[in-house]
Each structure stands twice: as C-alpha cells, then as structure tokens.
Amino acid sequence: MLTGKQKRFLRSKAHHLNPIFQVGKTGVNENMVEQIEDTLEKRELIKISILQNNFDDKHEVANEIASNTGAHVVQIIGNTIVLYKESTNNKEIQLP
User: Fold this and answer.
1) pLDDT at 39
2) Is residue 4 within 8 Å of residue 90, measured between CB atoms?
C-alpha cells in the first residue's frame, strides 16, 4: 500500500500528464489490461480517462484495472484515474 506522503508525491508528478487510455462504453477488456500493464512497466505512472458513455462506477473501473494489473490507484479525480506501479526494468520514480 502507498502512504499518504507517497500518494501526494505521485499526484504532484502526475499533474502534468495527459491521459493515455480511455475507457469507453465497452468497459475494461483483457486487451486493454495488457496494454496498460506494458505502459505501466515503461512509465510507472499513468492517467486513464473514463468517457461519458461509460456508465460503470469509476471506482469499480479503477479497482478492476488496478487489481488486474497489480497497480495502485493513486487518485480518482473527476473522470480521470491515476495509476502507479513500480517498474522492474525502468525504475525512474523514487518514492519518499
């Protein structure tokens, strides 16, 4: 689990990022989860946007993605999810 201090640090790092993935009306699928996992390995910190035509609860979407990828939900703000997963090969972010 991430501490409050670590989440604050990651939120500040994620502020300037743009969402890379979009969850639409079809929801989260296996292909999307694989792509998110690959991207997390490369970047460690990403944003995902939930589109207006997705009627699932955003917390459920965030938890589903996080549990399937092994990532941590840093923040859910509006329709944007911030995820963090420590990279094994490309570690760049040093948590406080």
Assistant:
1) 94
2) no
